[in-house]
From TrEMBL:
PANTHER family: RWD DOMAIN-CONTAINING PROTEIN 3. It is found in: Cytoplasm; Nucleus. SUPFAM superfamilies: UBC-like (SSF54495). This is RWD domain-containing protein 3. It comes from Actinia tenebrosa. It comes from the Eukaryota. The lineage of its organism: Eukaryota, Metazoa, Cnidaria, Anthozoa, Hexacorallia.
Length: 276
């Protein structure tokens, strides 16, 4: 308990330092809270930093375009003694480039000693991303354009009794099927926003309907029987690299901003808002 209390204090100090550095609107967000010396129900704390990086669109450093990459760092209650898990997403970079960044960042992570390292990761990302070119929305290469067109699905859930196990299962499926998943909580509302290739999305939905993923009122394992698909369409890639992220919204306005952040405001307005 003493060690856990020490870890909590170190995490709080690091959070305050990050807030002071990444103080512009939208640069820093925290997806769960450390309350009373313990973690939230999931036993994980998720911190997101919206980082500005220099994209090498031309040889002159002066004229390089400024792009953004979102780094989400998931901390366990054993951090900083245990290294965190990291995921990246970006609208300015395509899926392959984000995956390349993620691999390189994970390699760099393994070279670090346990300790408060989120700032080190942010600085490394800002310094090294200059070597990758941003995706071109005007490219004439049709094969690349088609490669970044996936199926986007928004699912509404009735409840999630065992959040920890539920999210753990979704994370495993996301990594296994190369699918990007965003889970959004807003009061009693639970939304899953995910994307991937048509075949992988089909397999994901099959597992979702046929596998034990939650528990019933008697705490017995059960399948998801109360899901509702709000929309399933072909859509340009928005959520970034494969994996799972989740966010807790305190209001519908915050929920709307989550969709706006990934340029999915049209999806929110047409399909999510009418269901609220």
């Amino acid at each position: 308990m003493i060690m856990e209390s020490t870890n909590i204090e170190l995490i709080k100090e690091e959070i305050e330092a990050l807030k002071a550095i990444f103080c512009e609107e939208g640069e820093f967000s925290i997806n769960s809270n450390v309350i009373g010396g313990i973690f939230s129900e999931s036993d994980r704390l998720s911190i997101s930093l919206d980082l500005q990086v220099k994209c090498s669109t031309c040889s002159s450093a002066k004229n390089r375009e400024t792009c953004k990459i979102k780094m989400t760092v998931a901390l366990s209650k054993d951090y900083p003694g245990v290294l965190p898990s990291i995921s990246l997403s970006s609208y300015h970079f395509n899926k392959k480039e984000v995956a390349l960044f993620t691999d390189k960042l994970h390699f760099y992570l393994k070279t670090l000693h346990p300790g408060p390292i989120i700032m080190d990761l942010a600085m490394w990302l800002q310094e090294n991303s200059v070597h990758t070119s941003p995706q071109s929305h005007e490219s004439g290469d049709k094969s690349d354009d088609n490669e970044d067109i996936n199926e986007l699905v928004v699912v509404k859930l009735d409840h999630m009794r065992n959040r920890t196990c539920y999210l753990k299962t979704l994370t495993a499926w996301a990594n296994d099927l190369d699918i990007s998943i965003m889970v959004l909580f807003a009061h009693k509302l639970i939304l899953l926003v995910f994307e991937g290739s048509s075949d992988h999305v089909k397999e994901f939905l099959k597992r979702f309907r046929s596998s034990n993923i939650d528990v019933d009122s008697s705490r017995k394992p059960c399948k998801e029987k109360m899901m509702k698909i709000l929309v399933q369409i072909r859509h340009p890639t928005k959520l970034g690299s494969a994996g799972l992220n989740w966010k807790e919204s305190k209001s519908n306005a915050e929920l709307e901003n989550n969709f706006k952040e990934f340029n999915l405001l049209d999806i929110y307005s047409k399909f999510v808002l009418p269901s609220l």
